[in-house]
Amino acid sequence: MSEKSLSELLSIDESGEEALARAGVRTLRELSEAEPEALAMASGVPLDRIKEWQQRARRAGAPKRRNPVVTGWKVAIVGLLIAGLVGWISLSIAGRKMERAVQMQREAESKLEVEVKFGARKALEELRPARLALHNDNWGEAADELGAVRDYIELMQRVAAKGSQSEVEKVSKEFEQLEAAIEDKSKNAMDDMTALEGALDELMRSE
After folding, report:
1. Is CATH 1.10.150 what the domain over 6-66 is classified as, yes or no?
2. What is the pLDDT of residues 88-114, one digit of tens each?
């Protein structure tokens, strides 16, 4: 990768480059592979601008995205951890900064809630091919398709704030039941699929 900065390579202003760096993105590869919604949230840069920069990065020779699930969540989690760390440091500085520190903590928790809902939406999308395979009695394919769903649920468990932990746990239990039903080729597998979809949809719509 070239030693030139992103601002030089892609004509990004320095403030934009700094925002990307705070979200853990410093190279063409990292920019190209990042999940745009997650990067926009972590960096504070508008989504349309992120997408434009990613297009420039790919034209500049960055490799195609290889693992958007892991990379996107990595960027989001790094950004959220930074926000949380800043909040806790502020807590220890002085009493007059306590209110601001609490506010930052709440903002970080709010961002975590958004990430959980994002994961629920992506998990629902990944369930569609599994449902189709199950409908066609293709049990092996249905089990394989659950792999991506499992990745999103595990990530949701890692970032879930206190307010959504119980709902995420419910989703996890529904997933385990569906996984077992498919493994056993149970006649209840389709009902378990519907129950998991319902739990994910409920999580997405929760306040």
Report:
1. yes
2. 565 556 566 666 655 665 666 667 778
